[in-house]
């Protein structure tokens, strides 16, 4: 990849996210990622390209780009991202310790979503 990683202190999180809304290309995504993610992005992107070519199916490539786009959006604000990860880890520890943490079980949320989509005729 030739795109250079962007430096988070040069652009605000809002500008980074706005640029990613306008351009979801692998080059734009890579440019928005923190430096520590570049090797993993390159490796996964190349693997998705290989699989897409081998399988004659672009799904692996689309899935890879979508996944990394989401990560770039989330990591545009390193402080907010670190806080989110910390909160998720805390909830996980509490749940594993048997403490009620609130929320809706995944199966219940999925069933409710499916029911809404069915009722809407989707």
UniProtKB/TrEMBL annotation:
<dbReference type="InterPro" id="IPR046214">
    <property type="entry name" value="DUF6247"/>
</dbReference>
<dbReference type="Pfam" id="PF19760">
    <property type="entry name" value="DUF6247"/>
</dbReference>
<protein>
    <submittedName>
        <fullName>Uncharacterized protein</fullName>
    </submittedName>
</protein>
<feature type="region of interest" description="Disordered">
    <location>
        <begin position="1"/>
        <end position="25"/>
    </location>
</feature>
